[in-house]
Amino acid sequence: MTDDADTTPATPDPDDHVARLQAQIDAAKARRAGYRAHATETVARGGPAHATDEELGIIKTDDTVGRIAGDASQEIRSRLGRLMSRFGRGGKK
Known about the structure:
Radius of gyration: 39 Å
Distance between the termini: 126 Å
Order of helices and strands: HHHH
Mean pLDDT: 84
Low-confidence stretches: none
Number of strands: 0
Largest sheet: none
């Protein structure tokens, strides 16, 4: 014969459950207060700090469309000049 009183699960204490929930609520309120304080400081500074070009992954070079086109035309002239000198300018002898 077994004793049924030993196998009955313990009833959870409602006060412990309420205390755990209240602790979670208090922690959430504290986090919210911290977030609000941080937001207030950010607004007082004039807004969030702007990310630098480096942080955004922006790479600055001296190449502009005009400069690239100039380099390309110089390369084309150079190659044409080499071709013309190789095959002769007049073509007739």
